[in-house]
Design a protein that fits this description.
about 250 residues, alpha+beta, 2 domains, five-stranded mixed beta sheet, 5 strands
């Protein structure tokens, strides 16, 4: 075969394979272009929405082998029924309450999170009380002082919930966990009214005994998680109507 035919044959052979790599490369470049366009628009977007985009983008593209995403470990944002703007009043309240737990070195005893009802500050039993009693401990007063000051600066309705584990209690003051959990919630409420003059119409207290556990009551650690008090800053759209009026 002549060199001319060999050259022609070589060209035809290359042409038969098609420009596959160019198409893949072009698609990859277009994806990167879209990504950087979104980056340029981040200055006008809420931080929470930006994080949602990053998560969605990584899930859709999955550049990395084995399904590895951009972040590892715990979720980027706390689970909530809807995104809360990073500049909203409730988001700023979230940050302020988290700073309190850091200031008092109680990050393992205090949890701040969003729920369907609003912003929840979850305090372990030992943060506020001695075991089996409902009187607020002296060690808890500096923390409650700060929490009360935060509540006084807001206009949210506040619900205080008391929770226990499933170990029965039977004393003169507390015949069951119902009385103990309710007394703890009421004592926190009373403190807020008496020490911070918070409008009593904004406050409510409820006791749930052992019937709303966070974890199974099958170990010392899990029972400790269930013994808690929750201070809930209610979202305006879930506030309960007063005076028997329809919402």
């Amino acid at each position: 075969m002549s060199k001319r035919h060999q050259k022609n044959g070589s060209k035809n052979g290359d042409g038969d394979s098609g420009p596959g790599w160019e198409i893949v490369y072009s698609g990859f470049v277009l994806i990167l272009l879209c990504f950087f366009i979104m980056l340029c628009s981040f200055s006008t977007m809420e931080e929470a929405k930006v994080m949602r985009f990053v998560r969605s983008f990584s899930n859709a593209v999955s550049f990395f082998p084995g399904g590895i995403k951009f972040e590892s470990g715990s979720v980027v944002l706390p689970e909530s029924p809807g995104m809360v703007g990073s500049r909203s009043e409730m988001a700023q309240l979230f940050e302020h309450l988290e700073l309190l737990s850091d200031r008092f070195n109680l990050t393992d005893e205090i949890e701040v999170l969003f729920s369907k009802e609003g912003l929840v500050m979850r305090l372990s039993e030992l943060t506020l009380f001695k075991s089996g009693v409902a009187t607020i401990s002296a060690e808890a007063l500096p923390l409650l002082e700060k929490i009360g000051a935060v509540i006084a600066q807001t206009k949210y309705l506040i619900r205080i919930e008391g929770h226990t584990d499933n170990i029965p209690i039977h004393t003169f003051l507390f015949p069951s966990n119902w009385e103990l959990s309710t007394a703890r919630a009421v004592n926190v409420l009373r403190y807020l009214i008496e020490e911070h003059q918070i409008d009593s119409q904004r406050l409510s207290a409820e006791g749930f005994a052992e019937f709303q556990p966070l974890a199974a009551n099958d170990s010392i650690e899990n029972r400790a998680k269930n013994r808690r008090v929750e201070v809930i800053f209610m979202q305006p759209d879930v506030e309960k109507p007063s005076n028997g009026e329809d919402p």
